[in-house]
Design goal:
By secondary structure, this protein is of the alpha/beta class. It is built from 5 helices and 6 strands, in the order βααββαβαβαβ. The longest helix has 14 residues.
């Protein structure tokens, strides 16, 4: 029988190519959020929430990457190339059997993915967003969820940006759009 989850924790882009110290697209604040995201995952699962890991995966030639990132594939390495260690979710946040994984190729987790179909089939009403990083994937996905009439909360202690100033600017904007932005313990 298919489970129903009105509350869903989305964990976005917590992959080696964004988190590791030597990652090609390292987000300075991402690694520091791992403990908070791990606590949020444990809590969400114990509360009976659904968990969806949203990850990037690209073709080795970068043909499905944004034009602003295609240069990262010029030398043959790329970023978040499907099947490479860099595309893998960091060990501390690895999905469990009841979790879902959705693959994306753009900032907005709803763009050209199966995320909306999955959320609707699960009965989702409230989305809680964690991951990296604010001005790109967190913001785009939060706005995409708001546009689809979900009740959206960005978990500020579970999200990151290159600098605290970038994070605060995005939190300010998201709040002004009507998106709740609070640390996970305040839920």
């Amino acid at each position: 029988m298919r489970p129903a989850y009105t509350d869903i924790l989305l964990v976005i882009d917590m992959q080696h190519d964004f988190v590791a110290d030597d990652a090609p697209c390292r987000v300075a604040g991402a690694k520091a959020t791992i403990p908070a995201i791990a606590r949020a995952l444990d809590s969400a699962r114990s509360r009976g929430w659904g968990v969806v890991h949203v990850i990037r995966e690209h073709h080795h030639d970068g043909s499905d990457a944004e034009t602003i990132r295609r240069h990262l594939f010029d030398d043959g390495d790329g970023v978040c190339v499907a099947g490479t260690p860099g595309a893998g979710i960091v060990d501390e946040l690895h999905p469990v059997a009841s979790d879902y994984v959705v693959v994306k190729t753009r900032f907005d987790a709803f763009y050209a993915t199966r995320l909306e179909l999955l959320l609707r089939s699960l009965g989702a009403e409230r989305l809680y967003i964690a991951g990296t990083q604010y001005p790109n994937c967190i913001r785009a996905t939060a706005v995409g969820a708001l546009e689809r009439d979900y009740d959206v909360t960005v978990l500020t202690d579970c999200c990151s940006a290159a600098t605290p100033e970038v994070a605060e600017s995005n939190i300010y904007d998201l709040r002004n759009m009507g998106i709740r932005c609070v640390p996970f313990p305040e839920l």
